[in-house]
Amino acid sequence: MSAFAYPLESACFDEAFDSGGAPRPHYAELLEALAGQGELRERVDRRVAASGLTFGEGVPIAVDPVPRLIEAAEWETLEPGLLQRARALNAFVADAYGPQRIFDADVVPRRLLESSDGYEPVMHGLLENGGPPATVAGLDLIRDEEGSFRVLEDNLRMPSGACYAFAVREVVAPEIQAGLAPRPLDGYLEEMRAALRGAAPEGRSEPRVVILSDGPENGAWYEHERYGRELGLPVVTPDQLEASRGRLFARRGREREQVDVIYRRLDEDRLCDPQGNLTDLGELLLPALRSGRLRCANAFGTGLADDKLTHAYVERMVGFYLGEEPLLRSVPSFDLSDERDRARAMERLDQLAIKPRGGFGGHGVTIMPRATEPERRRAIGLLRRRPEQFIAQETIEISSHPTVVGDGLQPRRIDLRPFVVSRTDGEAAMGGGLTRFAQGAGEMVVNSSQGGGCKDTWVVENPER
User: Fold this and answer.
1) CATH 3.30.1490 residue spans of the chain
2) Which of 51, 57, 402, 440 is the most buried (most CB within 10 A)?
3) pLDDT of 278-301, one tens digit each?
4) Domain 333-394 -> CATH class
């Protein structure tokens, strides 16, 4: 890669360059090294192809070779906020399926529970003794125009990407000829292993843990397989399971073993259909869950925390459950089921983002300042007919990062998904996480399911000033 001119975007914070176009101190060494590295993108692409790193229907995932750097001092201030938020969200999910204190106290409106697609009523009373309901939380962070991290969305149902972070590190780091040493990621796997074993029912000192997957048709199959290899766990599909007398068994060849913990990675998320009838999955798993002989890591019903309306109340949850001030702020959201919030949002709708409460992967989101007139009219029509199915959120000009385009670097918008593992005795975060980038200039949606790619994320020691 030859020396380059980098066109800053004036509307947003750039991770690597200050507003005057000078490299930020912790990026200076990396940028200098990149200027002398030719065919970097091609070498990384070859590594991606050789590794089998795919997302979706066997398509190699786009990996940009320029890592995102986070100074160690900044990470040390960010990490406690991640742990605090995961702790509060787990407390909320456990409460929602138990005493429901936060609704009785009117800190969060009960209509959230009553109207959420993520609520699973048959799980009520089943999350009290199984440890944190969400063993893994993935929090989507963005950096705002001032350079501050904020939480854009919370993912507790089945957050993906942790193993992609390992894979991206493996294909990028060997190609970067700079004197930087990112913090290793391998401690995360030990935390996962301990958390999954710790989720077992009492009395199971050597629990049988399996990863429950749809199989190769699942978009995150690469991750399921890799988790299996790294953790030494079998990956099974529902047709390999059978229920008997309040227990769950897995068949692998001629062997049949009782399962104590499932790490749930299925696309199917419901134990009951909208009419309250058990799904096939519910028929299979619910008897063992009710008997207490089976635990589920990332329990059914954790999708309640992924509801975009829940996001609007997480800062209140921190105060209610933990008695603390939030260390990490949310992107402000409007509860459109609330008459006052709706009136405030409608006054400045042209400045906001409209999101369906149950959406994921960026689908159905309308960023009003960037939408076409037909897109805007459609969003407003949907909002007026069913306001309770949407939230409005402040539009943030998310940060940009140097990304290889052609033979130079161009700014592309990014987010960060750090991962928090929760156990009964505490939480731990992966050192960095997975950075995702939008491939088009100025695009704001970074999700892999909509064409976004991945960057390695390095937590690096602070340079000497």
Assistant:
1) 333-394
2) 402
3) 999 999 999 999 999 999 999 999
4) alpha beta
